[in-house]
Amino acid sequence: MMNAYTGEMFHNTESHTSQQANSDELSNLYYQGVREQIYAGFGIRLVSFIIDVLIIHGLQRLILAPLNHFTHIPDWKLWINYFSVDHLVKALIFYLYFVLLTKCFKQTLGKMICNIRVERVDREALRWSDVLFREWLGRIVSGVMLCLPYVVVLFTPQHRGIHDYFGDTVVIKNKYAKLFFLKK
């Protein structure tokens, strides 16, 4: 700017500093807003889980119906009805579905349809321990507690459920994957 009285040029460094601070604050607010969009919320995760349960039910019927017909497995009990061979095979199919698909593809078929996937919080590759803690131990704990720990997804900043905390994972939307890996 030019001084009207002396004709000298001067720079308003105070104004430049405040503009830079405002720009940084605006950039940070923009990043925070975008970051909230990266993570898959409760609704889409619920739809994904319902799709997965329907697929698992179909797999169980496809595998167990002929097996039950020829071997009468539902009649076999170990100690109590809960530990029947039929129930244990159904549980095995359920957990194998989630563990194997999450480890191999970072998503189950329900998540593929909903365009979301599982990633580690630290953005490293999923390890077997992460997947086992998330998909096996986390789902057992959530199931024992009547699925109430899934509601935690509604109240956490990154929409993480209890099972996500067990596995140190988050569920992100595929279309924002580049942004997820951009800034830690």
Compact overview of the structure:
It is a multi-pass membrane protein. Helices cover 61% and strands 5% of the residues.
Provide the fold topology.
Layout lengths: L12 H26 L3 H30 L13 H21 L3 H6 L1 E5 L7 H17 L17 H6 L1 E5 L3 H6 L2
Q: What's the tally of helices?
A: 7
- Biggest sheet strand order reads 1-2
Order of helices and strands: HHHHEHHEH
Average of pLDDT: 86
% residues in beta strands: 5-15%
The multimeric state of the shown protein is single chain
Choose one word for the global shape.
Answer: elongated
Major beta sheet, specifics?
2 strands, antiparallel
Radius of gyration: 25 Å
Number of strands: 2
Secondary structure class reads mainly alpha
Uncertain runs: none
Beginning-to-end CA distance, first to last residue: 40 Å
Q: How many domains comprise the coordinates?
A: 1
Q: Considering DSSP H and I runs of 4 or more, what fraction of the residues is helical?
A: 55-70%
Structural key phrases:
61% helix, RDD, transmembrane, membrane, transmembrane helix, 5% strand, 184 residues, mainly alpha, RDD family protein, 7 helices
Provide a descriptive summary of the structure in words.
The protein is mainly α and 184 residues long. It has one domain (36-182). It is 61% helix and 5% strand. The chain has seven helices and two strands, in the order H-H-H-H-E-H-H-E-H. It has a two-stranded antiparallel ribbon with strand order 1-2. The chain is elongated, with a radius of gyration of 25 Å. The protein starts with 12 loop residues before the first helix and ends with a helix. The mean pLDDT is 86.
